[in-house]
């Protein structure tokens, strides 16, 4: 069956090296403009590129993580075009001999979104548009980038979301900063020609751009217009895509081999082993009969969480481990294994966890478990509260916030865990509402 | 004793530096060897630098208007190494714009042959050759892409040495064609060249293509070419002026008497080297020159409010005519639709040429006149068409395209004008060329019209 | 060349109408010479040339444009001669010798003379000023 909607992506990932791709300037210094620059990244006459070994290692790890066929040796090429942010008026990139070709990311449905190729290239400078001139900051110029190109295997927005999140998770576990939004070109075809939307930053905008394109192409087809293969840009403010000036997409790049560099073998470079959180979440969910969604939310962008789950989910219920992890996040704490276990025990015993409890745990103090809350005590507390305050029930019907109020009151009085109280309240309250 | 040692061994009278500076400025106003002359100290051995090699804080323009007032914030590695050995930098030498030329005439300030001012000095390292021909104690840092050290050396009667590609770091060299550019030396004797070559050659972190020729020579499994066998290619006979032919046969006889085995050999690819070379060099040059857009460095365009494409095009009208021609041609031959026909094909022909020449160089040197013609008058050279111009590089292009080291040395004089011959050896056999020339200098004394700075 | 062929053909038609066979012969000879002279000449049409100039951001004055276009056409004709060479299975030689693999360690080293670097440009609050986009 011919899929109606096809989406393909070209994603640019900043490679987290200390220095730039071809020079020893700090790659991520964004303080003052033009402070992290040199003749090489500013394209001064007489300068020559010097290739960063670390960039190759990281690139190889990403390619490996995406099951891509890694080249034995790689080389670089010059892609010539004129723009003020491109210091040499050519970009050193890879076309015929990239770091890898092929590969895939597997979604939870087991569908594979195929990777076409992965290549290493340098970033241009940052350019600010002013009324009568441009201002250019070369701090970013020469930063190493990885371009990941997919096949048009994504058929809907959910797949787009899942693909990008899984990719981000894989990159995160390889040590790549995903807080800096990934930039991408999004190619959309809705039963017709492919339209490329360039330079979109972040998943939210990618989704909006794709949605707009799908609708726009459908509307065009419905009215009998032809969708031509074209390049468009995304207007984030208005959430629409617009036609790009023709000359920008009609450039003749005149690509040649980069003669200031040679061939580099990738074979013996070390790699960082990949982590596939969607797979792990599935396995853990099965193993512990828990919610896959709950688990993946925790571990997708949190190495620490995964570590803790792996360590403790065998001994303690996984939901408790997750609660403990959330406690750490909420109070911005790190605990060693012993203390973390103390926290787990406290939670299992339904102890109210607040900043006091946490500090106690941190300092290694024993937690009062003598005040072990038992179920009947909480139940009777809930019952009496509801019976004494009929107004509460009435209020609750109109305002769910009352729910939290009740929890809060009981938790304070009995030093019990709000989560636990909430569980009981969820069971008891409907009975009350039904009864009264 | 080389001339560096000689220079330091002699006592210089007071006022030496001043009178040298004056004499040099005088001659320079006629011959245009230097684009600028720095104050001369007279204390240390002087060296000049071709204007396409960066000297920190000294205007470096590759003799192009588009780079006017460019002050490099760094020294080329070559310059750094010379300065660290206490050589005196005395000025930037004249050249064809960006290296585009065989006669030195693509310059606002016409360089003139020191032996006869109506004649060309050769190019593109014109100024370097003139300076070497007029100064007694001096060495020139020059550069060759297709013969830019050999040609002017031959016309100006000095020794011009172009090492194996990659032997000397290109860091700080304003690129013409990265797979063809080589920094080399000009001097009045092979001894001096050897001394300075040892200083400037060798790996450099700032140039990924720079290699260690001595290590490579040891690693190479190729037989070291027999040092006393010289090959002459039959096909050059049809290319040479009668006068060149007769002078050259005199040289061949001399060499025979000196004990060299002279052999003739066929080499059919000779003329194909020219279009191959120009395709590759222009393709690369057109990308190297793309960065000159009128802001960041060089001649500034201040009309920033113009659309950037118009801004760029306006700025780039500051290129000379030959530069424009080469940029246009270079852009064409690497265009997607014709690339395989020109750029890719030329790269394969280069491979073929290297293989074929290596077959000969394994067994000995290759010798020829450096240029197929007698030194032309400036006016005559100016009337040549581009294709005619390119064709005259026929003898210097083959070793340059293939990265083989080669040296041009004076071997005769005709009506007062010097004549040069070019010897080629296999990759990494640079020193054997210097050995040859040193030996030659035992029996042949070079003549000079000027000896500025004599002590 | 097509123009030449057309003119010759029209003339031929007129001449045969007149029945002059000697003239016919002369014209055929001229026709054959035409073919030899212009065979393989790389002629670029105006539009192609203008596009080429735009790609490399070079503009030519009207005076020099025609001359340079002709120069380029004749150089390209010269370049065409490499087509005849049999390069067999030879690969593309990007360098004349084998280049060593030289990689740089990922350790930071700040360029010492950034002020000299930036002094070459027009700057505004530490930004480099460039043309409007």
Characterize the structure shown.
The complex is a heterotrimer of chains A (436), B (455) and C (133). Chain A has 436 residues and is α+β, with helices and mostly antiparallel strands. Chain A contains 14 helices and 17 strands. Chain B is built from 16 helices and eleven strands. Chain B has a domain at 3-218 and 369-443: Amidase signature (AS) enzymes (Alpha-Beta Complex). In chain B, strands 1-3-2-4-6-5-10-11-9-7-8 form an eleven-stranded mixed beta sheet, sandwiched between helices. Chain C is mostly helical and 133 residues long. A two-stranded antiparallel ribbon of chain C has the order 1-2. The mean pLDDT of chain C is 84. The interface between A and C is large, with 49 and 33 residues. β10 (134-137) of chain A pairs antiparallel with β2 (127-130) of chain C, so a sheet runs across the interface.
In short:
Chain B is of the alpha/beta class and 455 residues long. Chain B has 16 helices and 11 strands.
Features:
heterotrimer, A: 436 residues, alpha+beta, Arc Repressor Mutant, subunit A, 3 domains, ten-stranded mixed β-sheet, 14 helices, 17 strands, 40% helix, C: 133 residues, mainly alpha, two-stranded antiparallel ribbon, 5 helices
Present the secondary structure layout.
The complex is a heterotrimer of chains A (436), B (455) and C (133).
Chain A: E1 5-14, H1 53-65, E2 69-70, E3 73-74, E4 77-80, E5 90-93, E6 100-101, E7 104-106, E8 112-122, E9 126-129, E10 134-137, E11 144-150, H2 157-173, E12 183-190, E13 195-201, H3 203-222, E14 230-235, E15 240-243, H4 246-249, E16 256-257, E17 264-265, H5 277-288, H6 292-299, H7 303-312, H8 318-331, H9 337-348, H10 355-362, H11 375-388, H12 390-398, H13 401-414, H14 418-435
Parallel strand pairs in A: 13-14
Antiparallel strand pairs in A: 1-11, 1-12, 2-6, 3-17, 4-5, 4-16, 6-8, 7-8, 8-11, 9-10, 12-13, 14-15
Helix pairs in contact in A: 2-3, 5-6, 7-8, 8-9, 11-14, 13-14
Chain B: H1 3-9, H2 16-31, E1 34-37, E2 46-50, H3 77-84, E3 88-93, H4 126-134, E4 139-144, H5 150-156, E5 159-162, E6 182-187, H6 190-200, H7 213-219, E7 229-233, H8 242-257, E8 261-265, H9 273-288, H10 308-315, H11 321-333, H12 340-361, E9 365-369, H13 378-382, H14 386-391, H15 397-402, E10 406-414, E11 417-424, H16 430-443
Chain C: H1 2-18, H2 21-38, H3 46-55, H4 62-79, H5 114-118, E1 123-124, E2 127-130
Antiparallel strand pairs in C: 1-2
Helix pairs in contact in C: 1-2
């Amino acid at each position: 069956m011919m899929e109606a909607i096809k989406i393909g992506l070209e994603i640019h990932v900043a490679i987290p090296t200390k220095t730039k791709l071809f020079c020893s300037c700090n790659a991520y210094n964004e303080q003052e403009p033009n402070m992290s620059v040199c003749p090489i990244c500013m394209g001064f006459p007489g300068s020559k590129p010097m290739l960063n070994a670390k960039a190759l290692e990281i690139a190889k790890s990403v390619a490996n993580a995406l099951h891509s066929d890694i080249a034995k040796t790689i080389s670089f090429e010059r892609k010539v075009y004129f723009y003020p942010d491109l210091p040499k008026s050519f970009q050193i990139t890879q076309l015929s001999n990239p770091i890898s070709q092929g590969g895939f990311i597997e979604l939870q449905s087991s569908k594979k979104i195929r990777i076409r190729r992965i290549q290493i290239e340098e970033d241009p400078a940052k350019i600010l548009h002013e009324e009568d001139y441009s201002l250019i900051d070369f701090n970013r110029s020469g930063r190493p980038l990885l371009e990941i190109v997919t096949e048009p295997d994504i058929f809907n927005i959910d797949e787009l979301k899942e693909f990008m999140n899984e990719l981000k998770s894989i990159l995160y576990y390889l040590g790549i900063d995903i807080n800096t939004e990934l930039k991408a070109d999004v190619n959309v075809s809705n039963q017709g020609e492919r339209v490329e939307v360039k330079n979109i930053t972040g998943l939210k905008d990618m989704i909006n751009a794709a949605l707009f394109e799908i609708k726009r192409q459908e509307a065009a087809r419905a009215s009998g217009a032809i969708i031509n293969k074209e390049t468009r840009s995304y207007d984030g403010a208005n959430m629409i895509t617009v036609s790009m000036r023709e000359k920008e997409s009609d450039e003749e790049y005149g690509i040649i081999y980069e003669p200031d560099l040679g061939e580099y073998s990738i074979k013996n470079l070390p790699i960082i082993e990949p982590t596939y959180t969607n797979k792990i979440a599935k396995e853990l969910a099965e193993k512990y009969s828990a919610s896959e969604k709950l688990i993946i939310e925790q571990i997708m962008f949190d190495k620490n969480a995964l570590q803790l789950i792996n360590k403790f989910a065998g001994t303690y219920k996984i939901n408790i481990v997750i609660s403990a992890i959330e406690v750490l996040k909420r109070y911005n704490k790190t605990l060693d294994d012993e203390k973390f276990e103390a926290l787990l025990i406290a939670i299992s015993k339904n102890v109210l966890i607040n900043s006091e409890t946490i500090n106690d745990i941190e300092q290694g103090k024993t937690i009062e478990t003598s005040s072990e809350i038992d179920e009947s005590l909480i139940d009777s507390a809930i019952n009496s509260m509801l019976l004494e305050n009929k107004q509460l029930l009435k209020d609750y019907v109109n305002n769910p916030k009352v729910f939290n109020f009740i929890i809060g009151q009981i938790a304070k009085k009995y030093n019990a865990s709000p989560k636990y109280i909430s569980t009981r309240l969820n069971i008891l309250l409907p009975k009350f509402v039904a009864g009264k | 004793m080389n001339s560096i040692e000689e220079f330091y061994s002699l006592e210089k009278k007071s006022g030496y530096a001043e009178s040298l500076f004056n004499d040099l400025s005088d001659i320079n106003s006629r011959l245009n060897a230097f684009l600028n002359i720095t104050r001369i100290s007279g204390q240390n051995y002087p060296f000049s630098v071709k204007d396409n090699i960066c000297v920190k804080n000294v205007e470096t323009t590759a003799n192009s208007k588009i780079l006017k007032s460019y002050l490099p914030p760094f020294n080329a590695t070559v310059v750094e190494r010379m300065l660290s050995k206490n050589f005196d930098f005395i000025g930037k030498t004249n050249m064809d714009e960006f290296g585009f030329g065989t006669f030195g005439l693509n310059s606002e300030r016409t360089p003139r042959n020191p032996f006869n001012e109506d004649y060309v000095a050769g190019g593109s390292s014109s100024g370097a050759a003139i300076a070497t021909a007029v100064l007694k104690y001096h060495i020139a840092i020059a550069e060759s892409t297709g013969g830019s050290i050999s040609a002017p050396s031959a016309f100006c009667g000095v020794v011009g040495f172009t090492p194996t590609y990659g032997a000397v770091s290109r860091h700080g060299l304003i690129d013409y064609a990265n797979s063809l550019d080589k920094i080399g030396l000009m001097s009045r004797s092979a001894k001096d060249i050897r001394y300075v070559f040892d200083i400037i050659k060798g790996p450099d972190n700032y140039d990924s293509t720079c290699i260690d020729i001595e290590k490579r020579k040891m690693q190479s499994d190729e037989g070291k070419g027999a040092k006393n066998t010289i090959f002459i290619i039959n096909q050059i006979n049809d290319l040479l002026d009668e006068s060149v032919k007769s002078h050259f046969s005199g040289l061949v006889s001399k060499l025979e008497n000196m004990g060299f085995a002279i052999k003739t050999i066929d080499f059919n690819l000779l003329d194909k080297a020219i279009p191959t070379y120009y395709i590759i060099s222009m393709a690369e040059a057109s990308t190297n020159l793309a960065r000159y857009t009128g802001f960041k460095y060089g001649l500034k365009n201040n009309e920033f409010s113009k659309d950037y494409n118009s801004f760029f095009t306006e700025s780039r009208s500051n290129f000379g005519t030959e530069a424009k021609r080469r940029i246009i041609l270079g852009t064409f031959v690497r265009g997607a639709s014709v690339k395989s026909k020109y750029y890719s094909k030329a790269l394969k022909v280069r491979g073929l040429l290297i293989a074929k020449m290596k077959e000969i160089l394994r067994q000995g040197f290759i010798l020829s006149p450096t240029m197929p013609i007698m030194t032309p008058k400036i006016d005559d050279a100016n009337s040549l068409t581009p294709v005619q111009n390119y064709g005259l590089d026929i003898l210097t292009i083959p070793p340059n395209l293939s990265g083989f080291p080669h040296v041009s040395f004076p071997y005769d004089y005709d009506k007062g004008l010097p004549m040069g011959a070019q010897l080629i050896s296999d990759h990494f056999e640079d020193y054997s060329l210097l050995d040859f020339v040193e030996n030659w200098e035992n029996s042949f004394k070079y003549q000079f019209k000027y000896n500025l700075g004599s002590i | 060349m097509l123009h030449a062929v057309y003119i010759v053909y029209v003339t031929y038609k007129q001449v045969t109408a007149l029945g002059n066979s000697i003239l016919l012969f002369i014209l055929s000879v001229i026709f054959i010479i035409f073919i030899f002279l212009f065979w393989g000449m790389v002629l670029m049409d105006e539009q192609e040339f203008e596009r080429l100039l735009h790609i490399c951001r070079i503009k030519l004055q009207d005076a020099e444009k025609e001359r340079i276009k002709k120069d380029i056409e004749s150089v390209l004709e010269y370049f065409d001669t490499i087509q005849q060479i049999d390069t067999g299975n030879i690969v593309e030689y990007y360098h004349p010798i084998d280049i060593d693999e030289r990689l740089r360690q990922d350790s930071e080293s700040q360029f010492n003379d950034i002020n000299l670097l930036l002094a070459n440009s027009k700057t505004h609050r530490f930004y480099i000023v460039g043309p409007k986009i």
